[in-house]
Specification:
3-stranded antiparallel sheet, alpha+beta, 3 helices, 3 strands
């Protein structure tokens, strides 16, 4: 486990209220991971012209990457589409 992930885990534990459920703990971890991916999320939104829906991080072959899902508006008032972008953290 890298120091960065250890620090994120500790930060998430501090953010979670006492007696938090597992779902709340996982949500706090996702929040901490998303904070580390904030620049990647901004880059994905600028690159695609869309609005950020979700942000998470994962280990991909020994490196941490940010997985950003954006909602891209359709031309001519059609239905928007989702696109997932994977960027280095």
């Amino acid at each position: 486990m890298t120091y960065r992930m250890l620090i994120l885990g500790l930060a998430a534990a501090l953010l979670a209220p006492a007696g938090a459920t597992r779902a709340e703990d996982e949500a706090a971890l996702r929040f901490a991971a998303a904070a580390d991916c904030s620049q990647a999320a901004a880059d994905a939104a600028a690159k695609t012209g869309g609005r950020v829906l979700t942000v998470s991080s994962r280990n991909d072959g020994g490196r941490t990457v940010c997985v950003v899902t954006v909602l891209i508006p359709a031309d001519g008032g059609g239905r928007p589409r989702k696109q997932t972008v994977v960027l280095p953290q």
